[in-house]
Amino acid sequence: MAFVGLGANLDDPRRQVQQAFRELDAIPHTRVVRTSSLYRSEPLGYAEQPSFVNAVAQLETGLPAERLLAELHAIEARHGRSRSFANAPRTLDLDLLLFGNAVLDDPGLQVPHPRMHGRAFVLLPLVEIAGDVAIPGLGSAKALLDKCGNQGVEKLD
Fold first, then answer.
1. How far apart are CA 21 and CA 61, in angstroms?
2. What is the residue extent of each domain of the chain?
């Protein structure tokens, strides 16, 4: 099982995230098992930008983590993602959060995602679809969510 975090705040963010759910399901040797609700969150870091729409998808995949990450980057590129500066506005951001129980620390790929444990906009949708999931080396996602509060994250209708 792998978990992917999705976020967007440009060019109809809800549509971007919903389309990305479908594109994740089209990755070779991969299927979407479950998707979270959509959540609205305030930007972190660079505050002068629109709110984000965030979600998490649970995947079953036969791909290695590096190949899955390459597929995620290809989807981002199709959505017009540019990486102009840290925490910049974006059409679509796809983060490989968890890849089974793997702990990877390679250039360009860190799993578990290195900042997920302190971000309610990741943990809230993750706990929604996998309430008992543990983050290797850090513990229960639910316990981590309890520590960071909701940080202004709101579930969308």
1. 14
2. 2-155
Catalytic residue, chosen from 93, 106, 119, 146, is 93
- Please confirm, yes or no, whether 81 is among the known catalytic residues: yes
| Residue 15: predicted pLDDT | 96
How confident is the prediction for the chain on average, in pLDDT? 93
Pick the CATH number of 2-155 from 3.10.590.10, 2.60.40.10, 3.30.70.560, 3.40.720.10: 3.30.70.560
Q: Are 110 and 101 in contact (CB under 8 A)?
A: no
What pLDDT score was predicted for residue 32?
98
Known catalytic membership, residue 93: yes
The pTM for the full model equals 0.95
CA-to-CA distance for 74 and 134, rounded, in angstroms? 28
Q: Which of 83, 90, 132, 146 is catalytic?
A: 90
Query: Is position 95 annotated as part of the catalytic site?
Result: yes
Q: Exactly one of 14, 81, 115, 146 is catalytic; which is it?
A: 81
29, 47 Cβ separation under 8 angstroms = no
Would residue 83 show up in a list of annotated catalytic residues for this protein? no
Across residues 3-22, what is the average pLDDT? Answer: 96
The pLDDT confidence band at residue 46, using thresholds 50, 70 and 90, is low
